[in-house]
Design a protein that fits this description.
It is a single chain. With about 140 residues, the protein is mostly beta strands. The chain has one domain. The strands form 2 sheets. The protein has a 5-stranded antiparallel beta sheet. Strand 1 and strand 2 form a beta hairpin. The chain starts with 12 loop residues before the first helix and ends in a 5-residue tail after the last strand.
């Protein structure tokens, strides 16, 4: 069974188009200079409507995570167990994603550095995931 796919619309299309090119774009509010994710039409911090797309590194640190043993969609059955993490990007936003090739014997990944991974889907789209960075402190 195929995994569910995100719905691409005119607001989030630049984000998904960048992933196809193995790049990460985030919105940045021109009024308050904060990074915004998920893509939207106005800033959640100051409610400003002037958002621009900026190149991001996609690097960050894990804030929290969970190991999925029993997915809620059959499309993920072949991947269990896997780690799903909240990542605080160095670019200023928080984003969620799968942690690829995570050693499940590790008890905690909190605070570990990650870098972006661009995963191809069956539908030919790229999605953002993360892997542990080689440059751990």
């Amino acid at each position: 069974m195929s995994k569910p796919q995100p719905v691409v619309n005119e607001v989030n299309q630049p984000f998904f188009a960048a992933l196809e090119q193995q790049r990460v774009l985030l919105q940045r509010c021109i009024d308050c200079d904060k990074s915004v994710f998920y893509p939207r039409v106005c800033c959640p911090y100051c409610r400003g409507a002037d958002l621009e797309w900026v190149e991001a590194t996609g690097r960050g640190r894990i804030l929290t995570h969970t190991t999925i043993h029993r997915p809620h969609h059959a499309g993920f059955d072949a991947e269990v167990p896997y780690v799903f993490a909240a990542v605080d990007l160095t670019d200023g936003a928080m984003i969620y994603g799968q942690l690829i090739d995570a050693p499940l014997s590790d008890v905690s990944f909190v605070g570990r550095r990650v870098e972006p991974v661009f995963q191809a889907t069956e539908q030919g789209r790229a999605l953002l995931a993360f892997k542990l960075a080689d440059d751990q402190e």
